[in-house]
Amino acid sequence: MKIAMVCYPTHGGSGVVATELGMCLAxxxxxxxxxxxxxPFRLRGFxxxxxxxxxxxxxxxxxxxxxxxLSLAAQIMEVAGEHTLDIVHAHYAIPHxxxxxLARQMMRGRGPKVVTTLHGTDITLVGKDASxxxxxxxxxxxxxxxxxxxxxxxxxxxxxxxxxxxxxVIHNFVDTARFSPHVENCIRKRFAPGGEAILIHASNFRPxxxxxxxxxxxARVRRHLPAKLLLVGEGPDRQxxxxxxxxxxxxxxxxYLGTQDAVERLxxxxxxxxxxxxxxxxxxxxLEAMSCGTPVIATRIGGLPEVIEDGVDGFLFPVxxxxxxxxxxxxxxxxxxxxKAMRAAARAKAEACFRIETLVPEYESYxxxxxxx
Length: 373
Ligand code: GMT
Description:
This protein is of the alpha/beta class. It contains 15 helices and 13 strands. Ligand GMT binds next to helix 1.
């Protein structure tokens, strides 16, 4: 098949899923065209069967807000015509599903089929906003196929928009060969020279991630044992978390690493991954940590219970319950045998349920179904 992946290029879960999916499909012999405003960050190097098309948005002085949606639609139309695409796969509803719809209309029905994957805040936050709601609903209803990354998100979509068309659930996936339990002692030594426990969090530091909770957890853990916190990513809440760490006298124990390409090397060296989010449709970062054999302490919200089994391969707590999260961390860090079992269970879950080799063919057969229909 000839497939276009329309996605955000930044360090967000939807861009990661789109990129990994596209690269895996290309390896399986499909022709894959990425369309975005810059190269998706995991799309490094040369890949057979992979093409990249950049969306160029004109900054005409009249435009207070340059119309990215229209430039994207025009680019999709151009790529679809030139390469006779079969499928345009829009990742994240806004504006990608609507731009794909527009491209198909501009091709007067001769365009490719549109598959939209709902990732999370496109439904749970942005999609609920009155200024986007009707457009998101329209984009979903007009797509030839719709997938969601968890059962939770599919239910939320139906409930929020009153949609009853089929929404296929295809969970996030992980490359278990790349994200594998592999402890690099030199990395551990660098961050925890005194043998401290290593807690880690990776995200785009937006309010839904509750970054300051990771600092609160560290503060509580350190009342019982020495520990460091690695923060991977960048985003609007960095400053607030930094200020809190300073106020609590923790700056020597928190390491801000910025965005990292080889996050798997860090995940494998950590003892626990923290994901105290207030919204999480799936929690790809948690899955990547689990695949590295790192148990996750997270919140019991959204799709996280579809990924983490409380007490088996991680822990789930109510949003904001930093006392309980810290207590669970301390307990586990003090019980090496239990920690070992949990590490193994986390890895086993990733291997059993979320392998890229299993989930990508699900998208492939969904495309075939949409094309057949
Ligand atoms: O909502 C976001 O954080 C953005 C979105 C993205 O585009 O990066 O992340 C979502 O998509 C991921 C991949 O499907 C999911 O694993 C994340 O749970 C989800 N984030 C949220 O729901 C907050």
